[in-house]
Amino acid sequence: MHILFCDDEKEDIEKYKIIAVEIAKNINIPLEIHTCTSAAEVLLNIEDYGAFVDVLFLDIGMVSGKNGMEVSKELRKQYHFAGEIVFITKSEKYVFDAFDVNASGYIVKNKTSDIRIKEVIGMAICNAQEKKKEYLLLKGIGEYRNIALSDIFAFEAKNNRIIVYYGDKQKFEFYSSLDKMQNTLLIYRIIRVHRSFLVSADKIVRYSYQEGLCLANNMQIPVGRKYRSNVKTLLHL
């Protein structure tokens, strides 16, 4: 799970990071944490990793540039950010505005109790995790198949059909297009890496220029030239 903290007070970031790591460890969820201190950095991070940020902790009252509420609205409307948003602030005056962006929590510095802070952070992490357990209903040749998104490794376009590879060496053919699947599944960390392939970012084990991607089920997936930079950004290469 990917979490992005944005607060111009670094000591607060460290406090919430410790809580998030502890909660995730207790429920066996691996975390990758990113941090930033300004609205401009938030937008850059979301532009690079937006589809892969599961939870965003955002300070409303950042001193430089736009405030957190303005940024959150821009993220929802222009970047189509679908992750959980938790607001961090020194004031309660924006609490009702939080509903406009479907925020999952609101922490008031030096006022919200430690117990409540843990509840808010825990709820956001659990909500994000639940999204990963959703199912995809696909129409094949004479049958429907309901597949857990968390079980999916890759989609391949072949002979005017799509093949989904999932579970224990299972596959299923259905009618659709990769363009349509790409737009639908981006929020679930399923990304385009080739004109004929979508892959689950969570299933990537390694990448090399010569061999492309190796997935957790040992599938080898080629990476198209136009998609290499996105893959490298995702894998921090």
Automatic annotation (TrEMBL):
The keyword Phosphoprotein applies. Keywords: DNA-binding, Phosphoprotein. InterPro entries: CheY-like_superfamily (IPR011006), LytR-like (IPR046947), LytTR_DNA-bd_dom (IPR007492), Sig_transdc_resp-reg_receiver (IPR001789). Residues 147-237 form the HTH LytTR-type domain. The keyword DNA-binding applies. It comes from the Bacteria. The modification 4-aspartylphosphate is found at residue 59. One of its GO terms (molecular function) is DNA binding. Residues 2-124 form the Response regulatory domain. SUPFAM superfamilies: CheY-like (SSF52172). This is DNA-binding response regulator.
